[in-house]
Amino acid sequence: MPLRRAHQTLLFLILLTAVTCPGIAQSPKDSLGLTSRIELPESGGDSLGTGETGEVISGEETPKPLPFEGYDPNHTDVRWGRAAIVGGTLGALVTGIHIYQRNAWWSDQRTSFHFQDDPIYALNVDKAGHFLGGAFGSFLGQKSLEWSGFSRDASVWGGFAMGALFELYVEFEDGFAKDWGFSPGDAYADVVGAFWPVMQEYVPGVEHLQPKFSYWPSSAMRNGTHKGNAIDDYEGQTYWMSLHVEGLLPRSWKPYWPDWLALAVGVSVRNMEVHEIKERNVILALDYDMTKVIPGDNWFMHTLKQALNYIRFPAPAIRISPNYVAYGLYF
């Protein structure tokens, strides 16, 4: 199924971030709390310190900021005012997106539910888009729950459920479209992508592997021959996996590598509209770890920087397949 899915998710979740993150006044402490699901081991009180709002997780070097004063990552204590804002925003956005997609894509496509796998569509680059959409949805679902007072474990797994269900809902609706159908391959990519932030939380080292997206309008888009919009301008899109190198280096090596400098490998598809033979590109590039580029250590800034890490900003790159091309700045 087309790459538009990832961008629908990005649009949806960017709007959600705008509502849940910026400077919303903290609701007063309420007495309604849920019991914690899982007790995490104590961090052991190492020498890193926690600061006023930070929390040191065992084995990590950087304290994780807390969403509000009194937040205990080991216990769920729902702030119902915040939860209502998140729930209302989610409900409104999902309803709005459903109406938009029904009118834009599904209204004249309705038929009986069916499966239609698409292993060769866009040379499978679209699967990277589904993966990214699931991962970003899971991440922002996680942050929305955390902001509402859910424990860290509950937020991580709840975010996974939110990201996966949103993607699968769209896939399910595609199952009723005569030109598309429910694609098992897309669904797998959606779920695996939604699971990525779970792995980043619990599997050492995975937090330094970051899926990203970049876009530069294709020539068809720029000269006006592309009939759609940026969302379905597939030739302008590139999907990346970024390696935040400094985080993986031995402690003694870290001083020799800038903490903000990352490396990335990307894939894209070209010649989709002009030629019958499509071209899959593989690109190696320099990249940035935005959590080290932008200042600010409170919860909102930390979340914003993590969200920006889903975007790959322009940097030098080389294409290594199908042939060699060097780019001063690759967008």
Summarize the structure in words.
The strands form two sheets. This protein has a six-stranded antiparallel beta sheet. It has a two-stranded antiparallel ribbon with strand order 1-2. β7 and β8 (325-330) form a beta hairpin. With 331 residues, it is of the alpha+beta class. 38% of the residues lie in helices and 15% in strands. It has eight helices and eight strands. α1 runs parallel beside α3 and α3 crosses α5. The two termini are 24 Å apart.
Largest sheet: 6 strands, antiparallel
- Global shape: globular
**Total of DSSP H or I helical runs spanning 4+ residues:** 8
Low-confidence stretches: 9-53, 56-60
Alpha carbon gap, first and last residue: 24 Å
Give the helix/strand class: alpha+beta
Compute the CA-based radius of gyration.
21 Å
- List the secondary-structure elements in sequence, H or E: HEEHHHHEHEEEHHEE
Strand order of the largest sheet: 3-4-5-6-7-8
Helical percentage: 25-40%
Q: How many beta strands in the DSSP annotation?
A: 8
Residue share in β-strands: 15-25%
Query: On the 0-100 scale, what is the average pLDDT?
Result: 82
Structure keywords:
331 residues, alpha+beta, 6-stranded antiparallel beta sheet, two-stranded antiparallel sheet, globular
Topology:
Layout: H1 4-20, E1 54-55, E2 64-65, H2 80-106, H3 125-147, H4 152-174, H5 184-202, E3 209-215, H6 219-222, E4 237-243, E5 261-270, E6 279-288, H7 290-293, H8 299-308, E7 315-321, E8 325-330
Antiparallel strand pairs: 1-2, 3-4, 4-5, 5-6, 6-7, 7-8
Helix pairs in contact: 1-2, 1-3, 3-4, 3-5, 4-5
